[in-house]
């Protein structure tokens, strides 16, 4: 599954199978992500999309198949630190370190893992936090921030490690609607900057706006994949994708229907 | 109110303070020994090894179910009878209170460690931190903030419970008070009220700061 230039994709998943007990969560899944590409993974809950990200990140082992980063196999959870640093991940529940300030959350790993100079790490953290509009919150503790603010800090924390690929696992699912935008604006900006990303989300308009490619999972398999997100959302080819997308629409039986997105 | 002279008599004051010294010494030494033992116990309890778990569980339950007084008798008289050990009352007290403190603190440490969400480990992992780094930089600071208030509370309970040591012949604060009362039984019939009143304040002076500290920490770290 190489792209036209013959280079190995940035991230590649081949025949990935993951079981929890008797339940097959991922069933021989294939996915390739080129450098600079933004792939959005959609699908009903329980379709295995979060598990896919966790397998890529090394948080879950795989039962069959493999994960490759720039052609190198990296499956499994026993990865060295240098490899883990190349894959950044942001979680639904933010998971900032509660005993540390915003600034310390962002600089901790660069200083203790990458042994970078503290001042240099702080300068970079400043640039990142300014970009997401949270530099004035640098000395606050996570518990005093809103969900949207925490998630933006979590994104900065991941970016400070200079990952090759960012994995975003339903980063707005726990947020109040008015905070979703401030987080997704940051993610859009990252995409503009050419960062390679795999994004799991339920925000369909956001998915349509940011995706270079849309991949829909169901039952642990890819049921539809499209390089043309607009076309995918307008005219999904498979029945399962149509069915899934129709869940985000509401229509009144009589009179005028209203379109509404979750 | 007659009888105040009993607590104004300098020799009685000195004796009470000496008794307080014994109380605080048993308490502090026991707390100091409980700390490393309890932390080790707590960390071992989070392991998945079923044998270690069972042994520590049995230890904790045993110590919890037994009244402290029975443990004191067991260590003081039991070891003397069974193996002819000649432990001093104070040594036996320190053994019992350290074992008790270690068990209770161990359970607090286990609870604190297990209360840290799995996702904190995940975050540390994807940031490239090693197991030790994650434990020292991410998990431990959170565990300590959750642990300190109940641990300080445990320390105050240990200090208070040292009053039982007089029942195996340790001359600590309360025993000293009784001696003074007995000695002045006819000269100062109201002595008991004065002496126990003073003892109340002496315990208060030791435990109150700990209790304030615990509440402060709880408020400060309630995030």
Give a short summary of the structure:
The complex is a heterodimer of chains A (262) and B (223). Chain A is of the alpha/beta class and 262 residues long. Chain A has a single domain (11-246), classed as P-loop containing nucleotide triphosphate hydrolases (Rossmann fold), CATH 3.40.50.300.
Question: What distinguishing features does this structure have?
Answer:
heterodimer; A: 262 residues; alpha/beta; Rossmann fold; six-stranded mixed beta sheet; four-stranded antiparallel beta sheet; 9 helices; 34% helix; globular; B: 223 residues; mainly alpha; MetI-like fold; 80% helix; elongated
Describe what this molecule looks like in 3D.
The complex is a heterodimer of chains A (262) and B (223). By secondary structure, chain A is an alpha/beta fold. Chain A has a single domain, classed as Rossmann fold. In chain A, 34% of the residues lie in helices and 23% in strands. The longest helix of chain A has 16 residues. The model of chain A has no long low-confidence stretch (mean pLDDT 89). Chain B starts with a helix and ends with a helix. Chain B has one domain: MetI-like (MetI-like fold). Classes of the chains: A alpha/beta (262), B mainly alpha (223). At the A-B interface, helix 2, strand 6 and helix 3 of A face helix 6 and helix 7 of B.
